[in-house]
Design a protein that fits this description.
Order of helices and strands of chain A: EEEHEEHEHHHEHEHEEHEHEEHEH
Helix content of chain B: over 70%
Helix content of chain A: 25-40%
CATH class of the largest domain in chain A: Alpha Beta
Strand content of chain A: 25-35%
Number of strands of chain B: 0
Number of strands of chain A: 14
Number of domains of chain B: 1
Oligomer: heterodimer
Shape of chain B: globular
CATH superfamily of the largest domain in chain A: P-loop containing nucleotide triphosphate hydrolases
Strand order of the largest sheet of chain A: 6-7-8-3-9-10
């Protein structure tokens, strides 16, 4: 449905997006992650046809956004980053304008108002709305024509926790029969609503996969988290070290009668957890926690993007010294 | 057909916005009040020997000066505001072309100016009651006003696309309109003909708005005058589209 091929965008000498490629199929919800200024919004703006790409192609359901922008835009619903709205209009007149331009009827406006919980403010002027309502009004204009493709730039920004949950559920529900791209800074949202995620940094895609696959790239992924009592911490530590396949043990806390830590193994399988369990059974220890770590998305995010920030800082410091 | 439909949707929204913000009412009232008071207070309208029932030398002297301020004031927000609030991103990701938006917005602002101009009709009723005016000249005067207003608005439109600040747009557009008017006033043309050469004076005369406006208000709706305004409007709107596109490139 959405096909992006080697998409690049330069603003003067600055390369904002560098050869980004990805595809989103019907039924997929793609999470777009990345630090501020990574190129997320620029990429989304090119997909929606707002910014012309410097090079590369964007196709929406086989239609080129550059060559047939009007046809392509008909298939897209777009929520821009700061949810801009015509503040001199009321909610319903603004949505009627959006519907009219897309050739839709007033019944579509009514259902968008209902879906986005805008009933209480529908006759209110937009400049008197709270941030949450403004955001939902903009979201309503993006979905009122029931588009096949939804591009949402930080759809939960500025919403309270309840509203965030509502929007996430809405995205998840709509994702069943649409192709959705949404960007966010909140990593738990990706796990909650996305079927796939892309991490973009300094204009390039640095990771692409399901949330589980991405979490698997975390350093903590596959480690065995253990918490054992019944013996001095140092004793438990040496017992665990003596198990086969154990390459390292990270001590998180250790007392006279307990130990908590993470166990590295040369093999990522369940045999280590069996070995730890048997160790506790044989020595009469109490096993309080035994868990294979899935890895954390924010660790992966930080590992990938902080590394770049460090390089940036070092380069900058180097230049200043010169 | 789609183009017309899209233009009319943008037009309706923009016209509502002009009247919702009350600015349109303010402009109309100011224009009518000023044009009437200038006509009746500063001109020799009531002088015993006045013979200007066709309003050429009284009422129609003023709209050009007033529209020089009014048109930039009506048009300053057209694109500057869209850029300041970010709604341009919304508008240009809707299934319409940049041209639909430009023409729709331009026509909406032009409607406000036209309404302001037409609201001065009591002065026509007055001269019709008092004397025997030449209706052709009066029509010519009104057409001259509308064309001048449209030209000044097109300039404002292009300037508005360049900036996010409505005030900056107002000042720049006003300066351009004033400059374009000044280069063709008789003293400047005489100076150009005396000190440089006749060709320079001809060029200034044909590029400036003074001579076209004064000819039209006399009732001379020549092809040259109409072509001048239409090409100026076309060029400025084309420039608007170039600016809007190049800002995103």
């Amino acid at each position: 449905m959405i096909s992006v091929k080697t998409l690049s965008k330069s603003f003067g000498p600055k390369l904002a997006v560098d050869s980004v490629s990805f595809e989103v199929k019907k039924g997929e919800v793609l999470g777009f992650l990345g630090p501020n200024g990574a190129g997320k919004s620029t990429t989304m703006r090119m997909v929606t046809g707002y910014l012309p790409p410097t090079s590369g192609e964007v196709e929406i359901d086989g239609i080129s956004v550059v060559e047939n922008p009007i046809q392509a835009k008909q298939k897209i619903g777009y929520l821009p980053e700061s949810a801009p709205l015509y503040s001199d209009m009321t909610v319903s007149s603004f949505l009627s304008f959006a519907a009219e331009i897309r050739g839709k009827k007033s019944t579509d406006v009514e259902s968008a108002i209902e879906t986005c919980f805008l009933e209480p403010v529908k006759n209110q002027s937009i400049d008197t709305l709270s941030k949450g309502y403004r955001h939902r009004t903009c979201l309503a204009q993006s979905i009122l024509h029931d588009p096949e493709i939804l591009i949402l730039d930080e759809p939960t920004d500025g919403l309270d926790p309840n509203q965030k949950q509502e929007v996430r559920n809405l995205i998840k529900r709509m994702g069943e029969d649409k192709a959705i791209i949404f960007s966010t800074h909140i990593l738990e949202e990706v796990e909650a609503a996305c079927t796939r995620a892309i991490i973009i940094d300094q204009g390039s895609v640095v990771a692409d996969g399901t949330p589980e696959q991405l979490k698997g790239k975390s350093k903590a992924a596959g480690l065995l988290s253990v918490s054992i009592t019944g013996m001095a911490g140092s004793g438990i530590l040496s017992e665990i070290r003596s198990l086969r396949d154990v390459t390292d043990v990270i001590e998180l806390s250790s007392t006279d009668s307990s130990f908590k830590g993470m166990v590295h193994s040369s093999k990522k399988n369940n045999s280590l957890s069996e070995d730890v369990f048997n160790l506790c059974k044989d020595k009469g220890l109490l096993l309080q926690e035994l868990k294979i770590e899935e890895g954390r998305l924010d660790d992966v995010f930080r590992e990938i993007t902080v590394a770049d920030t460090k390089i940036d800082k070092e380069t900058k410091a180097g230049k200043e010294e010169e | 057909m789609n183009a017309l439909k899209n233009i009319s949707i943008v037009f309706k929204r923009e016209l509502k916005a002009q009247f919702n913000s009350m600015l349109a009412y303010v402009f109309i009232v100011i224009f009518v009040l000023l044009s009437m008071s200038l006509t009746f207070l500063l001109d020799d309208f009531f002088a015993p020997n006045a013979q200007d029932a066709s309003l050429e030398f009284s009422f129609f002297r003023w709209p050009m000066w007033l529209l020089m301020f009014l048109a930039p004031a009506v048009g300053m927000r057209l694109w500057a505001e869209e850029q300041r609030t970010g709604t341009i991103e919304l508008l240009l990701t809707m299934p319409i072309s940049v041209w639909h938006a430009i023409v729709g917005k331009f026509l909406a602002a032009l409607s406000v100016i036209t309404i302001a101009i037409l609201c001065t009709f009591p002065v026509v009723l007055t001269v019709a009651y008092l004397g025997d005016p030449d209706n052709g000249t009066i029509w010519g005067g009104y057409i001259a006003c509308i064309f001048y207003g449209a030209g000044a608005l097109a300039i404002t439109c292009a300037v508005s696309a360049l900036t996010r600040s409505s005030v900056a747009c107002l000042i720049i557009a006003l300066s351009i309109c004033f400059g374009q008017l000044l280069i063709a006033i008789p003293p400047v043309l005489e100076y150009a003909a005396d000190n440089w050469n006749g060709a320079v004076a001809d060029v200034l005369g044909s590029l400036g708005t003074w001579s076209h406006y004064t000819e039209m208000k006399r009732g001379v709706i020549s092809l040259a005058n109409v072509a001048f305004y239409l090409s100026m409007i076309g060029f400025c709107l084309f420039l608007t589209s170039v600016v809007i596109k190049s800002k995103r490139a």
